[in-house]
Amino acid sequence: MTDLTDVRASALTLEEKASLTSGADFWTTKGVDRVGIPSIMVTDGPHGLRKQAAGADHLGLAASVPATCFPPAVGLSASFDPELAERVGTALGVESAIENVAVILGPGINIKRSPLCGRNFEYMSEDPIVSGVMGAGLVRGIQSQGVGASLKHFAANNQETDRLRVSSDVDPRTLREIYLRGFQRVVEDAQPWTVMCSYNRINGVYASEDPWLLTQVLRDEWGFEGIVVSDWGAVNDRVAGVVAGMDLEMPSSDGRTDAQIVAAVREGRLDESALDTIVDRLIDLARKAQARPAASGPLDVETHHALAREAAGRSIVLLKNDGGLLPLSRTAKIAVIGEFARTPRYQGAGSSQINPTRLDNALDEIRAASSGDVAFAPGYLIDEDAAPSDDETAALVAEATDAARAADTVVVFLGVPAHEESEGFDRTHIDLPAAQLALVDAVRAANPNVVVVLSNGGVVALPFADEVPAIVEAWLLGQAGGGATADVLFGAVNPSGRLAETIPLRLEDTPAFGRFPGEHGHVQYGEGLLVGYRWYDARRMQVAFPFGHGLSYTTFSYGDAAAATTAEGDIVVTVPVTNTGARTGREVVQLYVSLPASEVQRPPQELKAFSSVEIAAGETAQVSLRVRRSDLAYWDVRVDRWIVEGGEYDILVGASSRDIRSRTTVQVEGEKVVLPATMNSSIEEMLDDPVVGEELRAAIEEKFGGDSQLMKLLGNFPVGRLDGFPLPHAEMVALVERAQRG
Ligand code: BGC
What we know:
By secondary structure, this protein is an alpha/beta fold. The protein has 4 domains: 28-290, Glycoside hydrolase, family 3, N-terminal domain (TIM Barrel), CATH 3.20.20; 308-538, Rossmann fold; 556-668, Sandwich (Immunoglobulin-like); 683-741, no CATH class. The protein contains 20 helices and 25 strands. The strands form 6 sheets. A 6-stranded mixed beta sheet has the order 9-14-13-12-10-11, with helices on both faces. A 5-stranded parallel beta sheet has the order 1-2-3-5-8. Helix 1 (14-20) crosses helix 9, helix 11 packs across helix 14 (481-490) and helix 12 runs parallel beside helix 13 (434-446). The longest helix has 19 residues, at 172-190. The model has no long low-confidence stretch (mean pLDDT 96). Beta-D-glucopyranose binds next to loops.
């Protein structure tokens, strides 16, 4: 192995340098043998390793080596626990290292703008703090093993429809506060080795050739030190990409784009120093990959399966549990209904499809955990090509209702068929199949003690929510999801997952409805900041289950929250939380912030911190939450930077966005935006001017008296608009000039 410490771009020929900027094939980079730069391997990601043994594609078609399939992001994020994410990340790093993979292509942290996005199962949340904190946990874990992460898809890639060309048209404030904030958090906190730029355009510019995105924001503002890799096939103009800071094109272009780079340098269209910068970064990536300690296999399948089961158990959200129907008694007579209990849906389709080392199913696991009678009826078919006849459907339902009638409790597994949720296309509705909805109705008529267990990568409408006593949201849980589901059903695991996305009542209620997925190459993010719960709260809408919601088999009470600011300007909130029930459980304490007197439009409340804490029965934990000052900031488009407004902030602490248990306030020192005075400044703005404001006020008072009605009427007039109001034109010009001199 050559020591790369002193190897720089300057040691390479122009052709060698250009060759490094694109892949050798589907999954490996090119090396330069002459100076000892090695080729390295990168593979998907994100919730397991998808290393293809032979055959290469980015759609999950060809087989890959067996690897642990951890819960996809839709599940893991519901744990609201970055430490758990870090442990899963560490396991991903270990598996990558054993397979000699230098970079694993994840995590994906795009915001769930609409429940229709076909890839929501790969993303964390509708909230940027949840996405950022959980994403940073995963990156920290992966990289603790000397393996790189790839934070994706940067940025504003929130749909699959026309994903390779569509322009996400987002206003700058929304882009910063909602769509970039999570990426910023992960970059600043965990410094991923690589960031994957997305396919789409942002406000008309391809992410893969956007100097503002890839250099100004990512590197200059956030301090990113790694390389930018293109999503597979995202390169539109390779030379423009070099200028923008897009380091590595994947997969191989068969030398075509390398030649374009060489020609551009030779013809003076591309500054060679821009290429050198990229090449130095790519050498640095190879250096980091080389530094990884040799990993010794084989993979400890059992230990990682156990971690996958733990993580899956922590991902499950107990939505409803009337009358304490759950947990089930191990001696109860149970009817398990629904094909998904026997044939689990445990991950989504596309590039993230893992070849699991093992696969649990809930039916076997329920039978293993139960000492009573467990009957099973499939209830419906999940083979998309085999639609049952009416008679077959009737027979399936009859078998299910017979089983339900004979049981104490019925556990009905429902879910979204695999062919409806995948990378590459979006959903067109959020409904469960009609046959499944009809099945629930028939089953609950036969036996009202119904527990519904859901398997879905994106949220679904739950028209039966008021009719069944218990609902378990079991997402897609990875290879150990069956065991984890049994753990929660029987109470071996006390559920503690929380909704990282709102479950709406209807698709028509959702923020991007009518604006998703856009048309003719553009999608307007017209709902602005009001994404997810921000939208439902602002419009005071009913939802099926709110953001942050999730029940436990125990209960928690909250004491009074107390808030203080630190020397750095962060807010620290402490709140005593008591487990008032009979068993140990985890509470996810959530902190929302609101600034009612804000000068800018804001969502009514925004999550700024959370903590998942285990509390023993009868015990009280002093939970401490820290809100970073930078997370209080809004993006001010007038000055193009973050501004923390001063004022009294409401601090809302609770068990969900709609279950606030304690409130307090905290005074925050802010920053006032002072815009340069011009003849177009309004009278009100000039009255605020530190140099001439008082003088102007006195002049107005002298001329017009303290007529507040007049000021209300004319205060928003630019000072240069009406001669003589408030001062003669020449005097006004002089005043503005003095204000400008400061
Ligand atoms: C996906 C990426 C993935 C890549 C490689 C692309 O189509 O968008 O998420 O990492 O393929 O498989």
